[in-house]
Amino acid sequence: MERARNDLNVIILVGRSRLHLLGYLTSFLPLPDYHRFGAVCKNWSIVIRERHHGPAQQLPWLVLGEDSSTEKRVFFNLAENKHYYMDIPELHEHFVCGSSFGWLFGVDIHMNIRMVEPFSRKSYNLPPLDFCPAILNDPDHNWEVLKAISDHDPCERSDFTVMVVGYNYRVAFWRHGDPTWTIPYKSYGAINDVVFFKGKFYAVGYVCSDQIFVVDVGLGLDAELISLDHQVPMLPNTYKYLAEFEGELLVLQIQKARGIASGTRNEAWPCPHKGTTNIVVHKLDLDLEGKSCFECEHLDNHALFVGNNSAVIIDPKRVPGSGCIKNSIYYTHTPSDIGRCCGNDLGIYDMVQKRLARYYSPEALFSSESSFTYLFVFPTWLASN
Q1: Do both 73 and 88 map to the same domain?
Q2: Are residues 307 and 296 in the same domain?
Q3: CA–CA distance, 54 with 83 (Å, rounded to integer)
Q4: What percent of the chain lies above the pLDDT cut of 70?
Q5: Residue-level pLDDT at 285
Q6: CB-based contact 319:67 (threshold 8 Å)
Q7: Are residues 305 and 378 in the same domain?
Q8: What InterPro entries does the record point to (predicted)?
Q9: Which segments of 101-234 are extended strands (E)?
Q10: Are the C-beta atoms of residues 307 and 348 closer than 8 Å to each other?
Q11: CB-based contacts of 1: which residues, under 8 Å, 6+ apart?
């Protein structure tokens, strides 16, 4: 009996070692192969589900709408120039309003917010958000959550916090375990973007605002948006974003031109197109007295992916063959003031050449050949974690 028990323990240890080795091997796989690996058999699926080793670093995927016939979520793999269709029922009929650490945030018509890791299908149901309780009874309230991010990966820390930009360009946060959302006090101004940076959330004003705010969520109900003194020269009528790069805070200002997008599926409802014409980037050093800043001419050969997500920095040298352009900003932007139309401004800004290019045609979202829902889409970058 004792020998049989020892033999069984050896078999279990060998089995675990094999699974550990398989898990290690998956760290060299790109994301599509990583998840094909998990479809081979039950044991290999366990390796992927436990995620002791994530996939190799690669370019983020673009999250689009749902396939109208299968209800699968549509992703665009930039490196392969290819669409992928994934069954994520947790996000069915949800507007995807952001991503962080490989998780997606979705909000439904009742303002219920869900946080989903799309490959393992782990999820959290967050409390309903009541920026304006009256809109919950209005079937046409248009899903008043514009962006959502997290400060940490829930797979690594249970004490994570989610921050959203929502109704009337206000912000709210929810700490894991809280029964409700907290709306920090702000005396004036509207918010366009938020980022988690050095232990605190920072926010930047909407279009005509020249303010940058900080909020300490550790203060709970006493939290408030505090305006910072800064030296960033704010350009008029620009959409502003924040990102962290090499320990400093980047302030991006996106200048737009107004026009009309072509090729819409519904010509009776043309989508106003505010195409990007220029992007100006400043580095703001909050540690120095006077919070000094300077214009950023390059990204030290990195690429920045920014939009309706936590900003992602990629070193193109670590993803050879992907076609990623160094010192470039890959942006996806749909101004919220045109309604939940579609992501009609998707491009690359080469900071050195000061040149704009496309990586994904907005006409693809309107094409009659497209089977996925083009309404209610703010294309969002999803980075593997």
Answers
A1: yes
A2: yes
A3: 21
A4: 69
A5: 82
A6: no
A7: yes
A8: F-box_BR-signaling (IPR050942), KIB1-4_b-propeller (IPR005174)
A9: 103-107, 113-116, 123-126, 145-150, 161-166, 170-175, 191-197, 200-205, 212-215, 226-227
A10: no
A11: none
Unique residue bearing structure tokens 């992927």: 48
Looking only at the bridges linking them, the beta strands covering 73-77 and 61-66 are antiparallel
Range of the domain at 102: 57-382
Angle in degrees, CA 290, 232, 217, rounded to 5? 75
Whether residue 310 has pLDDT greater than 50:
yes
Residues 169, 290 within the same domain: yes
DSSP-assigned letter for residue 7:
H
Give residue for tokens 């992916």.
305
* CATH number of the domain within which 165 lies: 2.120.10
Q: Which residue has the higher pLDDT, 305 or 37?
A: 305
Of 344 and 252, the one with more pLDDT: 252
Q: What is the DSSP string of 67-111?
A: BTTT-PEEEEETTTTEEEEE--GGGTT-EEEEEETTEEEEE-TT-
pTM of the predicted structure, to 2 decimals: 0.82
Closest CA to 216 of 282, 158, 283, 171: 171
Task: Give the confidence band of 229 by pLDDT, cuts at 50, 70, 90.
Answer: confident
* Cβ atoms of residues 104 and 145 within 8 Å: no
